[in-house]
UniProtKB/TrEMBL annotation:
The lineage of its organism: Eukaryota, Metazoa, Spiralia, Lophotrochozoa, Platyhelminthes. Keywords: Fatty acid metabolism, Ligase, Lipid metabolism. This is long-chain-fatty-acid--CoA ligase. It comes from Schistosoma margrebowiei. InterPro entries: AMP-dep_synth/lig_dom, ANL_N_sf. Signal peptide: none annotated. Residues 9-410 form the AMP-dependent synthetase/ligase domain.
Length: 613
């Protein structure tokens, strides 16, 4: 951990961490007796050593940890606090504590601040009658003077309540027992062992939210192996700077980050056909070698082009774990070849906690998530409301049973019964199909799939992942309707690239657009015109829409999408897709329910436009 990029990295030993766990746990136990609170502790903030210490102290002293996504909206936060009866929350800053105190009508009793500032004392005086306030360091001191032995929980006791990221409404509290958590950690470690992955000198950069199962299990693998864990110095925007300095040997990723690396490479060689062909030849050659277990980092092409991208990740990455959604084959091959390391695609969910399926390191095929993990059972069932029948379609909803499954949703029996059946299977809501080699392929979420009027099913996530290979777009949301024979889409353009590639169209647009800009443009050159016209004005141009749509669908056809999967009309928005505006979940997935509500009239208009054409 470090305070800034100009500061040296400061490491703490496992012995020091254990001492702090005992101190913090002792202080929590003392507080619990003083204010008559339940044994739930909320953690609200960015990944940090203190975040981890608070969680592990909770586990050592039989507390139930309730992690909160730092990007939860007020409604979701109030829902979680009220549902769990939280009285104590560990949070990053005083401003967070002030806000939490305000929106919860002063129901919280204790705030523990991990990053106090000069407003700490004034806030402490202001809340002295209602709320107790401690810095993290004060809690450690309190634990020193009130040291208590650890209170080891039973395996069937609750370990955590992991709230879903809320992409489909208010978050639900997934109850995880200690036994389930340890079983999931064991499966993660067994994955490394089965793939002969050396955990010697293991180093990891924690950047996915610790309130997400994927980062929890990655952290456990690192800790069980005695590895080093680094945390982001600033934000996700400077992730590659942290990779450069922390030099991880493995990391967990979401496909979007890997696509970003691939697009940077493609951009570099796009205008150099000969170099592009030579690099592709080398990638294909390395893929054949990797089928035989050969991973090499030598040769002139490696020195001139590939090494640069390895250095972006610190130059020491030996393996990558990717989850959340499928990876495109071209991206997977690129990452494997250029970084010269295996990539394992994994599948799981908050409700199933552990690695349900994973690909082996030597498996270089794409578009599946590998074989079932040991001790896990999977069955596919019909989805009659969508007209999906396993016997007819060879696909169905994925249902999972394992020792890592949740107990249910906290204080929500109705939702629990919808997801957890009488045989102990969790109904994931994902549609899957078994391949001939025994691997499981994820088609899409049942809630995401839509059926067109002519009977074809469209998996929007697959289409969106394909469209992202178009360098003119930054984000895309695909939607369809059962009464329509085609899909439509909402697109956030890559305006910088668009201005470079659509000079003629934009120049013409600037001279004809009906706005105050028209007079300004009379005596301007094309270069000046490009700077004068706004992103919002670009989005209103029919010519620009057609230009982007044609490029999107051209790339989609090259990637093998069928005609019925292509969007026939698009809407351009200058607004970014972010977690803050609710269009993305904290794990960078599209928040479809929010997008569907926000763009409901837009989608309707897109269909009306196409109908009138």
């Amino acid at each position: 951990m470090r305070q800034s990029f100009s500061s040296p990295i400061k490491w703490i030993t496992y012995e020091e961490v254990y001492e702090k766990i005992q101190q913090f746990g002792s202080a929590l136990t003392t507080l619990m007796k003083e204010i008559s609170m339940n044994n739930f502790i909320g953690i609200y903030g960015k990944n940090s050593p203190k975040w981890v210490i608070a969680q592990l102290a909770g586990a050592a002293y039989s507390f139930v940890t309730v992690p909160l996504y730092s990007t939860f909206g007020d409604e979701a936060i109030v829902h979680v606090i009220n549902e769990t009866g939280l009285k104590i929350i560990v949070c990053d800053t005083i401003s967070q504590a002030c806000h939490l105190n305000k929106i919860n009508s002063h129901k919280l009793k204790v705030f523990i601040i991990m990053k106090p500032d000069n407003t700490f004392e004034s806030f402490k005086k202001e809340c002295s009658d209602k709320v107790r306030l401690f810095t993290f360091e004060e809690m450690l001191e309190k634990g020193c003077t009130n040291w208590l032995p650890e209170k080891v929980p039973d395996g069937d006791d609750l370990c955590m309540i992991l709230y879903t990221s809320g992409s489909l409404g208010l978050p639900k509290g997934v109850m995880i027992t200690n036994k389930a958590y340890l079983n999931a950690a064991k499966l993660t470690i067994s994955l490394a062992e089965e793939n002969h992955f050396s955990t010697e000198d293991l180093s990891h950069v924690s950047f996915l939210p610790l309130s997400h199962t994927m980062e929890q299990l990655t952290m456990m693998l690192a800790m069980f192996s005695g590895g080093r864990i680094g945390f982001l110095t600033d934000g996700i925007e400077s992730l590659f700077d942290d990779f450069r300095d922390f030099k991880p040997t493995f990391f967990c990723s979401v496909p979007r980050l890997l696509v970003r690396l691939y697009m940077n490479f493609s951009k570099k060689v796009h205008s150099k056909p000969i170099i592009r062909k030579v690099c592709q030849y080398e990638i294909n050659k390395r893929m054949e070698e990797q089928k035989r277990g050969i991973y090499r980092r030598n040769g002139i092409i490696d020195f001139l082009f590939f090494r640069e991208f390895r250095e972006l990740l610190g130059g020491r990455v030996r393996a990558i774990i990717s989850g959340s959604s499928p990876i495109d084959r071209d991206v997977l091959c690129f990452i494997r070849a250029v970084l010269s390391c295996p990539v394992s695609e994994v599948y799981g969910s908050t409700e199933t906690l552990g690695l349900v399926c994973s690909t082996m390191f030597e498996d270089v095929d794409a578009y599946h998530v590998g074989a079932i993990s040991p001790g896990v059972q999977i069955k596919l069932i019909d989805v009659p409301e969508m007209g999906i029948f396993v016997s007819k379609d060879q696909m169905g909803e994925i249902c999972i049973r394992s020792k890592s499954n949740m107990l249910g949703y906290y204080k929500n029996q109705e939702k629990t019964e919808e997801v957890l059946d009488s045989e102990g299977f969790v109904h994931t809501g994902d549609v899957g199909v078994w391949l001939k080699n025994g691997a499981l392929k994820i088609v899409d979420r049942t809630k995401n799939l839509f059926k067109l009027s002519q009977g074809e099913y469209v998996a929007p996530e697959k289409v969106e992942q394909t469209y992202l290979f178009c360098n003119l777009i930054q984000y895309v949301y695909v939607e369809g309707h059962s009464l329509k024979p085609y899909a439509v889409a909402v697109v956030k353009p890559n305006f910088r690239r668009l201005r470079k590639e659509a000079v003629d169209i934009i120049s013409k647009l600037a001279k004809t657009i009906s706005s105050p800009i028209e007079k300004k443009c009379e005596n301007m050159k094309d270069g000046e015109l490009l700077e004068e016209i706004t992103d919002a004005e670009l989005c209103t141009s029919k010519e620009i829409r057609e230009f982007i749509l044609e490029r999107m669908n051209s790339i989609a056809r090259e990637k093998g999408l069928k005609g019925f999967e292509l969007a026939r009309n698009i809407y351009l928005t200058p607004e970014p897709f972010t977690v803050d505006n609710g269009w993305l979940t904290p794990t960078m997935k599209l928040a479809r329910i929010n997008l569907r509500k926000h763009f409901a009239n837009t989608i309707k208009n897109l269909y009306e436009e196409e109908k009138s054409c």
